[in-house]
Every structure is written in structure tokens, then in C-alpha cells.
Specification:
The protein has a domain of 45 residues: Erythroid Transcription Factor GATA-1, Chain A. By secondary structure, the protein is mainly α. The chain has a two-stranded antiparallel sheet with strand order 1-2. 6% of the residues are buried. A hairpin with a 6-residue loop joins strand 1 and strand 2.
Length: 70
């Protein structure tokens, strides 16, 4: 059975990029910088919280109690 060449489309320009490419998953340094600029400008966001707010409050309470023991 022939070995499959793994590839992906560049998230910026949709050019096919081989996994072995130096800039993978981008096709070029230009596309990599465009992507970074979108993150830096706030165009990309994580749409949901990483943890439930109630869990974060409980964790903060727990750490403040641990800090007060010292």
C-alpha cells in the first residue's frame, strides 16, 4: 500500500501545504504573519470560557485560604 502524503490547507490563503514544509501549517512566512496579526488585533477570539465561572470562583477561594495559612 502506498504511503499517504499528509497535507493541509493554509488557513490564510487556502494553498495546499505538505506537513514536511518549513512553515507548516502555513504556506509562507507572509501567511504566518497575517495570522499572528489577526490574533494580536483581536480579530480571533476564543468564544467560550476555558472553565466554568463557578469553578474559577471556588479555585480562587481555595487559593486565598491556602495563602492565609502561611
Amino acid at each position: 500500500m502506498p504511503k499517504r502524503i499528509r497535507s493541509l490547507r493554509c488557513p490564510i490563503c487556502r494553498t495546499l501545504v505538505l506537513r514536511a514544509a518549513a512553515e507548516f501549517p502555513f504556506c509562507s512566512e507572509r501567511c504566518r504573519r497575517i495570522d499572528l496579526a489577526k490574533w494580536a488585533s483581536g480579530k480571533y477570539v476564543i468564544s467560550s470560557p476555558l472553565a466554568e465561572p463557578e469553578l474559577l470562583e471556588l479555585d480562587e477561594e481555595h487559593s486565598s485560604r491556602d495563602d492565609n495559612r502561611d
